[in-house]
Write a structure and sequence with these properties.
The chain is mainly alpha-helical. Helix content is about 50%, strand content about 5%. Strand 1 and strand 2 (about 15) form a beta hairpin. The termini are far apart.
Length: about 150
């Protein structure tokens, strides 16, 4: 794997040379898989959680950076890593007393039930995994437009 430099930092992930990782996208990396899962949880579509840091993961990182006012370079450095951790923390804690509201970034059995219902009536949620990501959001929006 040569000069690929992807190391865990503080239990998270830190990619110090994203361009090299993009060029070596056929190399599996657990840190890339963790990153993909976190971005998916936050609603940024990596088009799969497969552990390969390719163009789709890069695009999701750039979209996250743009949405959070960070430098849009596709590199998961300390600022991006911190922003992801903060966003995950904010998404996992309840923001209001109405626990019946489901939104992007949430996960659990309620989301899984929603995905099951939407899938059963013909809306593609991208799977029934209990993660409210972009595919589930798109299915909800499609349902709301054509109930």
């Amino acid at each position: 794997m040569g000069s690929i430099s992807a190391a865990q930092a503080g239990g998270m992930y830190y990619f110090s040379n994203t361009n090299e990782l993009l060029q070596k996208s056929n190399c599996y990396n657990t840190e890339a898989k963790n990153l993909q899962q976190d971005l998916t949880t936050l609603g940024y579509n990596t088009y799969g959680v497969d552990g390969y840091f390719g163009q789709n993961t890069y695009n999701a990182v750039v979209a996250f950076q743009k949405a959070h006012g960070l430098q849009q370079d596709g590199v998961v450095g300390s600022q991006t890593e911190s922003a992801i951790a903060t966003a995950l923390s904010n998404n996992s804690s309840p923001t209001n007393s109405n626990s019946n509201i489901l939104k992007i970034g949430m996960s659990g059995t309620d989301v899984q039930k929603l995905q099951s219902i939407l899938t059963a009536i013909g809306y593609n949620t991208g799977g029934i995994d209990g993660q409210f990501g972009q595919n589930t959001k798109n299915a909800v929006l499609a349902f709301q437009q054509n109930p």
